[in-house]
Each structure stands twice: as structure tokens, then as C-alpha cells.
Task: structure prediction
Amino acid sequence: MKSPQYTREIPQRYRLEAQKCKQCGKIHFPPRLICDACQSRDFEDVHLAGKGRVLTWTVIHVAPAKFDLEAPYVIAIVEMEEGVRLTCQVVDCNPEELALNAPVEMVFRRIQEDGQADIIQYGHKAVLQRE
Amino acid sequence: MRDVYVLGIGMTRFGELWASSFRDLFVEAALEAIGDAETDRLDSMYIGCMSGGLFVGQEHIGALMADYLGRAPIPATRVESACASGGAAVRLAYLEVASGASEIVLASGVEKMTDGADVTAALATAADQEYEVYHGVTFPGLYALMARAHMFKYGTTREQLAQVAVKNHYHGTMNPNAQYPFEITVEQVLASSMVADPLRLLDCSPVTDGAAAVILASEEIAKKAQAHPLVRIAASAQASGALALHDRDDITYLDTVAKASQLAYQQARITPEKVDVTEVHDCFTIAELCVMEALDYTEPGKAANLVEAGETRIGGRMPINTSGGLKAKGHPVGASGVAQIAEITAQLRGEAGDRQVAEARIGLAQNMGGTGASCTVHILEGLA
Ligand SMILES: [Zn+2]
Result:
């Protein structure tokens, strides 16, 4: 990802900054300019607490060039406690440990590098919460 | 709005066509459609193409193709809606004739995918770059997320997914234009290499070069044509939804397919049971099941039972993807939606050869982009 685009999204990538619609209460991640549920443009900032559960997952065996050395790796759709969903990697686990609704916690990790500029780009991945 | 008819159809063979260039593929399909329509007149043209820029470094595709077809100065516009680019091109051509603005319009689709581009990265541009692809997800990966969710929710099995590919390959054996005109077995699907668990190589449509074209015309012109039985476009509908799969209310349910098909059934004044032959966007095996459910061909979670029972094979109650589908015919992404219209038209004319569905009168073509964020549905009626 090119650096202007990456830099613009640092609040979401580093801090999971989201927004809540003041009219209907829907939480958006990433933030939007207009609520798709009620068309309101009035929002307040919220931070996602970083806890959620796995709704579905896959193990990527054939990866894009940038992620080739990491394959196989797990990608999941995670539903956060606040109700929003996101797509991310699940790391530090065997795929066999994953289960429907498995609780996860978001951790700050390196995601990829911009090939030409060698800029290391960060974001969140999920880890299983083991009781 | 006035009635619109399919006057001509054409397509190249689908496959790894190293000897053909991007522009030649388009011209070959367009000339075949013009020949099939037995007309010299063309008022304008639309070209569905997902990513000439990433696959062959070529944009500004409308004028290029009009020039090489020898039809400049007629208006020519490239249409992009990821893998639904072809369906969207057909829809725009339909609207242009239906509105009365033009009498004869060409709708086409073309993609040249095997010239050495990073195909995985190019296809991934149909997903949310910033919030899906950034984290390393691929297109097979997104459909794998759908497949596992479908397995959890409905108990769909790995074998049932494989049966979709087996059926489409069987149909592909009867299509001389198919990329993979040979049969496969459930065992072969289950033994093929893992791409994105639970999806394996033989669950995935291939990387393909190819083009398809159809000529749409007003009633006045269609009724003068003698070459083929008449085929009328009874409905053309389109819907949009969340680009990111994770933003859908139900990951297993393609709500744009449901919306577009409901609009199309209303416009055609039919119910789903009236459809005799269907082409769906089976980019992955799970997609065919999810599309059948969203088209209301059966209840959510029940599509696999119909496939298992042979109902969707030629000779079954509701034949699906008689062309071989994207899986066996091939999937030149921008062309697939147009090739579906060509297949349905051939079926309704009674010109589908070995794969002809007996007494097919109403056909439906469903084309989608990304993980279903764009969907077009066309319903055609044969007046033979
Ligand atoms: Zn709202």
C-alpha cells in the first residue's frame, strides 16, 4: 500500500478508531461520512476495545506475492464486542485450535511492507484468548 | 421502455489463448455476433472489462475496440463492475435500446488474463483494498470464509461443494468453447491442492482469456430478422451491496443476488419455478450454492441437496450452468456475464447442440462482481 494511503488510515490501523452514529447508534469501522443505516452525518468517535469472536475463517495456502513467505496463514472475520466486524489474520495458533465463536483479542503487529519504498506497515491481528 | 431482443451472439473459445491479443479476442467475438445477427448496422457498443489496466496495461478500451472492429466513430464505452462487468455491459446496451435512443447495440466482454500479470493481485482489487486485501486475504480466501460459514450454519459438506464442480465439468464436455471440456470426480476435487481451506484448486474457476458479444435490437428490427428464433429480454436488473464481505448481515446470503432477482422476476412477471435453464456465477463451488439460494430456487441451506439429487444437471428439473459454468467453460472475468447471455440465448433458440435443454422457453443469467457486491440478473424468453 502506498504511503499517503497508509498514513491516512493510521487512526484505524494503529488505534482501531471507529465512530458511532448519534442518530441510530450504529458503529462504523472504518468511519464513514454518512451512516448507511439512517443517512445521518452526525457521529461521535469511539475506540474498539479489541475483543471479539471468530465468525468464520480460512487458511490461505496460495497467497499474494507480498504474503507468500507467510503462507499458510489464517484469515478470519471477527465480530467485535461493539458489534462491528472486520477481516484480519489470526496468529500465534495452529489452525486446528480455531473454532466457531472462539474468543480473540486484537494485537498490534506488522502487516506488510510497501515493496518499493520499504515502508513497514502495521495494523491489528487477532490472537486466541486461551482461558 | 420498449421491448429488446437478442439478435446475435458470439464468443471466442475460452482458454489460454497465447496467440490472440486482447483486442483480437474482442474483435473475434464481436464479428461472430455481427455475423450471427446478419446485420451491418451498429449504433453503439459497450465493452465489459474488469482490468485491462492490470492484466495487459491497457485502459481506454472503448475507443480501442471500436477502432479495431472498424466501427469508429460510433460511441464505445468500457464498463467495469469487477466480474460483473459483462452483465453490466449487457444491461447498459439493453437500456439504450429500451429507451429508444438506439436501435442496435453491441454488448461485449473481454479479458486477457494469461499475459503474465499478477492475477491474484489483480483479482483482489474487486475486494476492499484497505480493509480486506491489506491483511492478506485473496479471492478464494473470501469465498472460503463464505463456505465455512455455510458449513457451520447449514451442515453443507465438502463433498457437496465438490459435486458442483463435477456437474459443471460434465456440462463442459458438451461445450466446444470450454477451457476444460473433461469430466472430473468428487475424489479428484477432494485430492486437488489446497488453495484457501476449505476450498481446493478444483473448487475454483480458472484463469482464462476470452471474449463474448451479443447484439441487442429493437422489436422492429428483430422481427425483420429471419436467421434465428426470436429471444426477448424479459428483465434486466442490477443491485449493489457492501464491498467488504464482513459488512454483510449474513455472510452466507448474497443479498444483492436476492434483490436483483426479485426485481427481475417482477419485471418479467414470473416466479422462479418458471425458469427452464439458468447460468449462474460459479466463480467458486460455494458461490453456485449461495446464488441458487438467493435466487429463491430453494430455501437457504438446501441448494446442495438439489445438486446432489441431480436436479441441476441437464435432464434434471432445473439445469444450471449448461455451458460448463465459469468452472469448466472458463472465467475471463469481464466476458463471463456476456457469455452467459450467449448460452441462454442459444438454449432458448434451440441451438445449444448436445447440451440443449428440452423445451427451454425461459432462461435466467446471474452475474456478480467481487464477493457479490455487484449483481446483474437477466431473464430471457424464447418466442420460438
Ligand atoms: Zn445511523
Remarks:
- Residues A 21, 23-24, 26, 35, 37-38, 40 surround zinc ion (CB under 6 Å).
- Chain B touches chain A through 34 residues (CB under 8 Å).
